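[agent] plan:
  1. take the single chain provided in the ticket
  2. run structure prediction with default settings
  3. attach structure tokens to the ticket
  4. add a short note for the reviewer (M.T.)
[agent] executing step 1
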Amino acid sequence: MSESIDAVSARSAGPPYAVTLHDGRGHTWQADEPSALGGGDTAPDPVELLLSSLGACTAITLRMYAARKGWPLADVQVRLRFNPVGKPASGSDLERRIELSGTLDAAQRERLLQIANACPVHRILAGEIRIETALLGTEARAP
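[agent] step 2 finished; step 3 output follows
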């Protein structure tokens, strides 16, 4: 996984709710809201992007671990849902289902489940998250 400090910028200046995202390595991707919420439905919404981050991290982490061990993991499929049984009383719940393909024995499959729970994005989401927010630029002044 990434060994550098991760940084992403998000800019919304075009159609309502459409956002262009950039990283420091030259990648660009999009986010948008569904039409029902006034967006153009041109890209995944922010929650889908969050789920995709956990899914990608899980699959990559499992593939890396299995390769390092020389295990016959042929394919990883991760399915994720946000609050699948409705809004919880407090906090938020994610459901993650992992399908492993390959001639793995029961002990290898169990170890891969443990490794999935240790992927970096899982650890971030399961831990306490503090977000420092500040406005940048000049302040608007009344005439």
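[agent] step 4 note for reviewer: The chain has two domains: 1-43, 45-129.
[agent] ticket updated
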